[in-house]
Specification:
The structure is a homodimer. Chain A is mainly alpha-helical. Among the domains of chain A are: 40 residues, Orthogonal Bundle (Arc Repressor Mutant, subunit A), CATH 1.10.10; 127 residues, Orthogonal Bundle (Tetracycline Repressor, domain 2). Helices cover 52% and strands 0% of the residues of chain A. Chain A has nine helices and no strands. In chain A, α4 runs antiparallel to α6. The longest helix of chain A has 28 residues. The first copy, chain A, is globular. The first copy, chain A, binds a DNA duplex through loops.
DNA sequence: GCTACTTTTCGTACATGTACAAAAAGTCCG
DNA sequence: CGGACTTTTTGTACATGTACGAAAAGTAGC
């Protein structure tokens, strides 16, 4: 078993299909049929190959998606490095968010720390921009890592909720959608006696679209994180 | 098709199995065999029922997990409502986070806005506490929703990354784990010329465990969110 | 008890990701 | 050219969630 393309020895049967051809076939499916259709069997058919042959070029489905992400990241414009450190963090995070939001198939694969270690150079530019911004603002290295990780969690959470919600209501981000319009009133209905504040909010729950939530939340988050720059180390028990 | 338990008419074959029995069987599997073993086929066997019979009591697997979450949430202690509004938000969010972190099987199901509409009363107490804290601090209703949603995204992201990462390295949260110790050096290796700040951080990437990251990030986030209380509406393009 | 009708239960089938081991198709040395 | 060896390719099999429709098992009216 191996995942070559960089030939180890030079003996044995030469591969008939390259990793690049498989990725190209995957992109073809993404564009033509949509990401729901990107299954291993269909990909194998598109590449003119047996299903199990795919496993010689990718470790598993997740590996395939990661390679696709790196592929597409190469076509992103590099992050904007002008502006204050704080603005650079915001810009890089937003770029990361927007790219992922455009690749709904990518969300299956984002939720692991190990994913970071497999990013290609283009994607790493964004991580570097965030970390550099934090350091330039005065964060310690530990704090810079903390800034990156926190933003990463927030971004992944927003992306996943958005993509997953869209899967069930494919009409996208309806600004007016209500969080409490679910189909099972018996379980989670609001009671003015028990949830007075939620009731008071009433139908304003869905008042802004997901983008606004992310934009505003990100700025609040970055400000809160940077306010601690240089002071107590993260890990400090003091609040 | 229906999901009764509250009898609609009174004619027809009476059910042999109740929703409660199925949930009980599911909890038995969770405790005895671990959550990886909670499949519909196994659950059906445990409940002494055919697989497809399950679909008369739950809409699908996701519905099953949501009902389990609400079940377990009933046994959580209510959130701590003493302290300042800010402290209440932090306490409620932490309680939510810790509960979800203890239920790795729950993470599959958290990533949709619609999930909120299906929460039972116990789980809603936490949401209400967060919203109430924000309002009491001086947030507008819209801002309070924004506070809740942002914290929700951050929490879900952290939980998902943690659970997913643990699935591949079942040894849990190793404090010393390095983000850049992945198995594919050819893709994502750090280059001092291109990622100087990341390189400078070196092996400090994994210096704190996930809990600390969440704790600290949450406080920074809440502070950043509350700093905007009452001022410009969210949605304001400024900043 | 018999006949409609309703509701619950279940058997079968399909798509999916992937493990395993056998088969196929090359290269290299003599 | 012949055999040994290596690498690639593939066929088969299994567990999973779930759609579909038929079978089973009760109730209500007569």
């Amino acid at each position: 078993m191996a995942l070559p393309d960089a030939p180890s020895g030079r003996t044995g049967r030469p591969p008939r299909t390259s990793r690049a051809e498989i990725l190209a076939a995957a992109r073809r499916i993404l564009e033509r049929d949509g990401w729901e259709k990107l299954t291993l069997r269909r990909l194998a058919a598109e590449a003119g190959v047996s299903t199990m042959t795919l496993y010689h070029h990718v470790r598993d489905r997740e590996d395939l998606l990661i390679q696709l992400i790196n592929d597409l990241a190469d076509q992103l414009p590099p992050p904007d490095l002008s502006g204050s450190p704080r603005d650079r963090i915001v810009a890089a995070s937003t770029a990361m968010h927007d790219a992922l939001a455009a690749w709904p198939w990518a969300v299956e694969v984002l939720t692991t720390d190990g994913f970071l270690s497999r990013l290609g150079e283009s994607a790493l530019r964004i991580v570097e921009a965030i970390v550099a911004g934090a350091v330039d603002h005065g964060c310690t290295p530990q704090q810079a890592v903390h800034v990156y990780r926190s933003i990463w969690y927030y971004t992944v959470g927003e992306i996943l909720v958005r993509a997953h919600s869209r899967r069930r209501r494919p009409d996208g981000d309806q600004p007016g959608e209500t969080l409490f319009s679910g189909p099972d009133p018996s379980l989670g209905r609001l009671d003015p006696a028990r949830q007075p504040h939620m009731v008071a909010i009433g139908d304003r729950w869905g008042e802004f679209a997901a983008q606004d939530t992310y934009r505003l939340g990100l700025r609040a988050f970055v400000d809160g994180l940077l306010a601690r720059a240089g002071s107590a180390e993260p890990g400090d028990p003091a609040t």
